[in-house]
Backbone:
């Protein structure tokens, strides 16, 4: 299937960034793309691609990776928002460490494998929401007083002033953090909203390539 047939809009769209956030991080961008897709077990060709990626990625690459431009850009941004990349590792570094500890990239589901491959091939992390739980456009802002992460009864409280991703009704994810309970992709999901965070030093073409990689792989499992 042509990956463009899965998407409701073939190009990622930019979400709003609250003025107080944009003034501090003028190059921070939120991009999202909604598509019709499910997340079954990965087909053989995707599992093989994950295996080939595991075989190519060795300890030396992991050590050198953080000095590459895109992983370095995310490390710098982590420090700017008060995260220590040595303990709260940026997504690509966290995935690389997991690969070294487990000896391979373990196939989990079509979506998880697509996110892994897209991240390791481009350096740009993507996240996914169940699109039917998203109301309105995504945006970045600061968490407000007494706000919770999501609308489920189990939604955890958010620290006021933290950076969050919101839809029209409230927070659905923490910036570079967890997805809100009840908003993640499940076996019942038929529509997904992928989103990426572009920071200073990350070229737009790499972000677009990450989306394309992910959508292409999700297309292997059918809509």
Residues:
């Amino acid at each position: 299937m042509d990956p463009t047939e899965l998407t409701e809009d073939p190009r990622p769209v930019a979400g709003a960034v609250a003025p107080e956030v944009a003034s501090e991080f003028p190059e921070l961008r939120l991009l999202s793309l909604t598509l019709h897709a499910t997340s079954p077990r990965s087909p053989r060709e995707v599992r093989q691609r994950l295996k080939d990626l595991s075989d190519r990625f060795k300890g030396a690459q992991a050590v050198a990776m953080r000095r590459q431009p895109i992983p370095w850009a995310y490390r710098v941004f982590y420090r700017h928002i008060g995260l220590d990349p040595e303990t709260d590792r940026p997504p690509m570094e966290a995935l690389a460490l997991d690969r070294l500890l487990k000896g391979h990239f373990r196939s989990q589901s079509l979506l998880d494998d697509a996110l892994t491959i897209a991240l390791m091939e481009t350096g740009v992390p993507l996240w996914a929401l169940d699109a039917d739980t998203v109301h309105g456009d995504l945006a970045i802002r600061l968490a407000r007083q007494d706000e919770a992460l999501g609308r489920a009864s189990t939604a955890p409280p958010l620290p006021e002033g933290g950076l969050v991703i919101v839809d029209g009704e409230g927070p659905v994810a923490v910036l570079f953090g967890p997805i809100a309970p009840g908003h993640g992709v499940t076996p019942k999901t038929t529509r997904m909203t992928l989103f990426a965070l572009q920071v200073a030093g990350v070229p737009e073409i790499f972000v677009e390539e990450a989306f394309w990689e992910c959508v292409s792989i999700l297309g292997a499992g059918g809509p």
